Amino acid sequence: MSSKYDVIVVGAGLAGLRAAGVLEARGLSVVILEKRATVGGRMASHRVDGFVLDEGFQLINPAYPELIATGVLDDFDLRSFEPSVRFVRGDSSITLADPRHSPTAALASLWSRDVSLADEMRAVRLFAHCGLGSAQNILAQRDTTIIAGLQRYGFSSAMIEGVWRPFLRGTLLEDDLNSSWLYAQLLLRSFFKGRPGTHPEGIAALPRALAAQLRTTSVHLDEEVISIAGTTVQTTEGEYRGRAVILATDPTDAICLIKGDDVPWLGQTTWWLSLPKDYGLSSLQIDVLAQPFTSALEITAVAPERAPANSVLVAVPANGVFESSEFDRLAVGYAARLYGTRVADISLIEKSVVSRALPKLRFPLTFPNVQRRGDLVYGGDYLQTPSIQGALVSGRRAAFEVLTMLGS
Ligand SMILES: Cc1cc2nc3c(=O)[nH]c(=O)nc-3n(C[C@H](O)[C@H](O)[C@H](O)COP(=O)(O)OP(=O)(O)OC[C@H]3O[C@@H](n4cnc5c(N)ncnc54)[C@H](O)[C@@H]3O)c2cc1C
């Protein structure tokens, strides 16, 4: 006996959850089949000794238009970090801040020897261009590499190497600046409009909240899809027949089920550290000279619930996959320098090694007109942009594709 639904969604990541939400709102019966024990896919968190750790370092930007469209943020305990970054280079440091939130810090940076006034003015112009214009205006430009885009704006090489590269490499998970300038501008737009944050229950709270919005959709966890033939789906538990199927897994899992192309992945390693005292520093800290690490962030400065009483949780991410324990020592040293504490007083709680963190972005940036091949509709961040925004957009687009197919 097979179970019947209008639409079968494979994967309960953000894309699958968003697709289901749109479809059930149009009155269709939907089932989501998810192989893991929880919803959320790559947005996962777990507890270790009273600490709430995310599986990889990620933040939620409340300015993502598609996230706003879901309505999920209306009742979401987002704890935003201070919109400022401290760049440390040897013995000197400079804090660049959003003047709308931290006027004193922003003013102080005007007298810095590390960043010229001309470069600061260029940065203000760039943020204003990205933040005040529409996303369509950004996307209407011809794409180029980030480095070429920054140079075209007139930034000095000191500003590019000392500020832009260290900041963007942590956001894009790529060390070089050869990816899409259009995408970098979209990211700057989201930083202009929103203050990224986290949740006291970890990043997984976001997909959980999206799943909680579903009213009629059945979500089957711990049920792996093993084959798809037309609109019939076979899982470890049984068979499902639908009028349409959305494959909302990541691209590497998708090619285990159907023929297709894999995409290159960018990896990330995050060291979750316990520090001896509360620094109350909710701004991002970057040691410009200490690769492979990209930054350090005191998570408990905004979400003390994520650590046992009197404990401090700091995340230190790096671009790439670093299994060797040699890097554990370096990560601890990195945090010790940035927070001015002794290495001996820091302990490693856990290291998250995520080899498939972000699908590498297409360059130049393009978006597929259709997310469908034959009977099968696709969802997933790899079809749009490697982000919460991209995953949600891809889910909505997959749902619309199904509605068109079914004439609903
Ligand atoms: C380390 C890291 C850092 C990140 N940082 C940020 C950030 O700061 N800001 C930001 O906006 N984005 C960030 N992202 C990206 C963001 O998390 C992803 O873009 C988004 O979660 C992808 O959602 P998705 O639904 O496309 O895919 P996924 O989350 O991969 O979901 C796919 C789902 O399909 C399931 N599945 C696979 N195969 C099967 C099968 N055979 N049967 C049933 N189920 C199956 C999987 O278990 C999974 O639940 C980060 C991601 C990572 C990993």
Give short descriptive properties of this protein.
32% helix, alpha/beta, 408 residues, 19 strands, single chain, binds flavin-adenine dinucleotide, FAD/NAD(P)-binding domain, 3 domains, Polyamine Oxidase, Chain A, domain 2
> Which ions, cofactors or small ligands are bound in this entry?
flavin-adenine dinucleotide
The third-level CATH topology of the largest domain is FAD/NAD(P)-binding domain
Question: Biggest sheet, in brief?
Answer: 8 strands, mixed
Assembly context of the chains: single chain
Return the CATH class of the largest domain. Alpha Beta
Average of per-residue pLDDT values: 95
Walkthrough of the structure:
With 408 residues, the chain is of the alpha/beta class. It folds into 3 domains: 2-44 and 204-264 and 362-406, FAD/NAD(P)-binding domain, CATH 3.50.50; 45-79 and 197-202 and 265-359, Alpha-Beta Complex (Polyamine Oxidase, Chain A, domain 2); 98-193. The protein contains 12 helices and 19 strands. The chain has helices spanning 14-25, 65-70, 103-109, 117-132, 135-139, 146-152, 157-172, 181-193, 205-213, 251-257, 326-339, 388-406, and strands spanning 2-10, 30-33, 45-48, 51-54, 79-80, 84-89, 92-97, 197-198, 218-220, 225-229, 232-235, 239-247, 265-275, 284-287, 297-298, 312-319, 347-359, 372-373, 376-378. The strands form 5 sheets. Strands 1, 2, 9, 10, 11, 12, 18 and 19 form an 8-stranded mixed beta sheet that branches. Strand 1, helix 1 (14-25) and strand 2 form a beta-alpha-beta unit. Helix 1 packs parallel to helix 9, helix 1 (14-25) packs parallel to helix 12 (388-406) and helix 4 crosses helix 8 (181-193). It starts with a strand and ends with a helix. The mean pLDDT is 95. The site of flavin-adenine dinucleotide has 36 residues, from helix 1, helix 10, strand 17 and helix 12.
